[in-house]
Predict the structure.
Amino acid sequence: MSQPRLHPRTIEAVKERADIVDVVGEHVVLKKKGREFVGICPFHDDKSPSMTVSPAKQFYYCFSCGAGGNAIKFLMELQRTSFSEVVLELARKYQLPIETLDGPQQERLRAQLSRREQLHRVLTLACGFFRSNLQQSEGQAALDYLRSNRGLQPATIEAFELGYAPDRWDGLLQHLQQVEGIEPALLEAAGLVVPRKGGGGFYDRFRGRLMVPIKDRQGRVIGFGGRSLDGSEPKYLNSPETELFEKGKHLFGLDKATEAIRKDDRAVVVEGYFDVIALHAAGISNAVAALGTALSSQQITQLCRCCDSKRLILNFDADGAGVRAAQRAIGEVEQLALQGQLELRVLQLPAGKDPDEYLKAHGAGDYRALLDQAPVWLDWQIEQVLAGLDLSRSDQFQQAVTGLVALLGKLPATAVRSRYLQQVAERLSGGQARLALQLEDDLRQQVKGQRWHGRSSRWEQPGDAGVRERAEAEVLRLYLHCPSERAAIRQELHRRELEDFALQHHRLLWAAISSLEEDNLGLGQLEAISRGASSGEALADLDLPRLLGDQLLIEQSELLNRLTPLLEPSEVQRAGLEQPQLHLRGAVAVLERQKSLKRCRHLLDAWSSQRLETLERCIARLLESGQPNSAPGSSEPSNPGLDMEARIDALFAELNRDALQFQSLYYSERKHVAHLDEQRRSRLQEVAGSEPVDPLPA
Ligand SMILES: [Zn+2]
């Protein structure tokens, strides 16, 4: 669609209204610094906040890459969209009148805008219908549930506009069609009704459910969450994605929480609607919930905008699913937290309670006290690593060390890392000071050795990238087009730690696949399949190539072009899908071998530089020990009582400990590569029949 030519009045109005801090702040976490704001620049690979945003001058500027301009330029560059698209987007956001220079296009635009307004109106009417139902005899059971089970006062039920969807196939449909004269197609677009299979009309999506309206920041209804009352599944049914309701973008309760977040200077993120409602009812109104999905970085950015100190407290349930949700949310913001851009804490309530249960038993004062004591995310993660381990058993002790080294390896080498190494060593030593010192030293060396990122291209050799691209593509093609193999592929990737694809478009595709599967199966089920704890037959039912094609077409058409060869394989590639297990084994062995070899090169490098350092330190110590004129190994020591050779030996023995550690890591990695080659050989032989195969190069 060609863009309409906008009237200068509209452009001026947008420039006037679009505040630079507001616009940039929606995409970048901004921290106040004097009269300006700073944040991580989205236009280059920024390590420390290089972008400055000036509210007085209404522009942004990056001191590293030179990006700069006004609010409109920022969005044009970030979203790679045209001037008029950005102006339109902003005009809609701030609800400014849109005038164009062109008659027919103006009409089309008006129609588009009025459609959003119509959807808002339909959702508001539905909300009113559900509310009135709650007060009628049909809704009596739902109202009883809210009052007795949830202990909610009428004022809270009113404030959150809770309602009830009658247990009929066409309760809402009939009401809105007959009383308000609304077309079913519009109800479908609002996510309220579902077309009957076979094409004979529509039926209500929500039936016999307690209804919780979901609102945007401005307080307009954009969707619903419906809780079943009779134990039928799913327990919570949410509106599907619509033109108004985008998951991962909105937070439940944010419309009511903004002021309190600003005042309290921190935000609490909980899991469920009723946790938010219970907290608000208890006077803790800085609480919000992610909407049935993992907390996204976009949602976190939204929260940070309301909160000057950027303090977030995650209070997820203490069960397995809650802990995983917290871990994933941490993963989303880890970089920002590591850079000190936000202060992330994790609150785990005692005895595995959720906030609603806790408030009922203890009250708001105790809950606030727990919020104040909530540990910083890294402390919480350390506890997660140690949870359930018996440190007096050597295998579990080693497991703890491995987990902690991986965790602390992410920290940049600063005073913070030193402090954590010390803290962890003390913890592991069980209070024995000597042991603690030794452990600290040991951990420090291991963390140094582990500071290696699989994605870095530094340890790569020419040709590696092409080999890897082909192998990754083969795995993904098999996954998309051999549905019955999906569970096996997931398990294999999980077992070999290959779930992190190296190529960006492959990573994006894998994320899109996973999120589609998660929507259909749920996260718990998907993780059980990866661990091999579930057969995963349900994975085979999804028509992934079609679903992905549709989704990418709407959301990321550029990416779709890159991925088309995977979604629609050629004849030759199709032939490769005939022996899926064979090809899978080959492709994952290639990927794992490459990863291992990269690690070998890294270890070798770390090892040799360590040896040089050791030698240098030996010589330096010798010179310091009062013999400036005597070269090491000189046959005439000036101090005859000193056995120089023995001292050098001792120094080497002491200082070479590190090198030996690298050495053993290196050997085990090489042995692993040899093992992978063995697997590859047997696979080649299967493919080639009984023909002999050339040995692989080392
Ligand atoms: Zn920059």
Notes: The radius of gyration is 30 Å. The first helix runs from residue 8 to 17.
